[in-house]
Write a structure and sequence with these properties.
Layout: H1 7-30, H2 36-58, H3 62-86, H4 92-102, H5 111-118, H6 121-138, H7 141-147, H8 153-161, H9 164-178, H10 184-190, H11 192-209, H12 219-246, H13 252-263, H14 269-277, H15 281-309
Helix pairs in contact: 1-11, 1-15, 2-6, 2-9, 2-11, 2-14, 3-4, 3-6, 4-7, 4-12, 6-13, 7-8, 11-15, 12-13, 12-15, 13-15, 14-15
């Protein structure tokens, strides 16, 4: 595999996402729209149906589910380690938000369009099952750690049990295992949810930014987010590929999929979850926006270096 030219694939997703954020900002400033009900809608309805559709279309196999398990475990461990490291330096809510954000990235809204350009169809499927693990982390371990910023253990666990995405994941596995065919009209109806998820997820960032004042700008928090997202994660992704190469072997498609997971900006769901739990969504929105703006400069650089180091490029 030769090193890909990432200039063109990055331009379209970036400006599309920026436009969605701009629409959200206008909605908050001019229409006074409250983003909290939209965050609730995303978490309890749109995300589960999007997740269910992706699993059904992907046809989960043991090999694919191992990828999902691997990214889920990695994201969870990163979150737990960062939580222990930062809780002495940040107030509880900021520490919880930083820990949650450290385990995830914008693998869907931002990473998927790039994956579809750089990878063949089988590579995109591998990437999607890696993304599913990160998404599952967001709404289980990540959500719990975020809730613990202001709720008790019991309250946090109850909140997780109320999240329908967990049940959507289990339902998709049961349906696939039993070989149940979902009627075509239902699957066609579900086609609208991924785009809706992307649009509303990015608009929430803009809506939150529309209410931000200068006092919400926290340089320490922003630096910590950049260090984890663009420091720790690219290193982990490169080490994972090198480890696979030295042991089990890894295809070029899977290697690039793993590297993409490691170099995307912060996840928009950081703001969605922070808003649902009322844990400083303004700070999350600022950090997400800045890491997204940095992505066109950093992602090509990181991928070029990582592809050379791992011998793929």
């Amino acid at each position: 595999m030769t090193s890909p030219d990432l200039g063109a694939p990055l331009i379209a997703p970036l400006w599309t996402l920026m436009a969605f954020i701009g629409l959200g900002w206008l909605s908050a400033r001019r229409l006074s729209i409250d983003p909290r009900p939209i965050a609730t809608l995303l978490i309890y309805l749109i995300a589960p149906l999007t997740f269910f559709r992706g699993l059904i279309l992907g046809g989960p196999s043991p090999g694919y589910l191992l990828l999902t398990l691997g990214t889920f475990v990695t994201a969870s461990l990163v979150c737990l380690v960062i939580q222990r490291l930062v809780r002495a330096f940040f107030p509880p809510q900021e520490a919880a938000l930083l820990a949650f954000s450290s385990g995830t990235g914008n693998t869907g809204y931002f990473g998927l369009p790039i994956a579809m350009v750089l990878l063949p169809p089988e590579g995109v499927t591998l990437y999607l099952f890696c993304v599913l693990g990160v998404t599952l982390y967001e709404f289980t371990v990540g959500f719990y750690i975020s809730a613990r910023g202001q709720f008790s253990v019991r309250q946090s666990l109850i909140k997780i049990l109320h999240l329908p995405l967990i049940y959507a994941f289990l339902a998709a596995l049961v349906v696939s295992a039993l070989g149940v065919a979902i009627p075509a009209p239902i699957m066609e109806g579900l086609d609208v949810f991924p785009s809706t998820y992307t649009l509303l997820g990015m608009m929430i960032i803009g809506m939150t930014l529309g209410r931000v004042t200068f006092r919400e700008v926290d340089p320490r928090f922003i630096v910590a987010c950049f260090a984890v997202r663009y420091g720790l994660w690219p290193l982990l992704a490169g080490l994972a590929v090198l480890l696979f190469q030295a042991t089990l072997g890894v295809s070029a498609e899977l290697a690039l999929a793993l590297l993409l997971i490691g170099v995307v900006p912060m996840a928009a769901n950081v703001v969605v979850v922070a808003m649902e739990l009322s844990i400083r969504p303004e700070k999350g929105a600022i950090a997400v926006l800045l890491t997204t703006l940095a992505a066109p400069l950093l992602i090509p650089l990181y991928l070029s270096v990582l592809l050379r180091v791992t011998g793929i490029g």
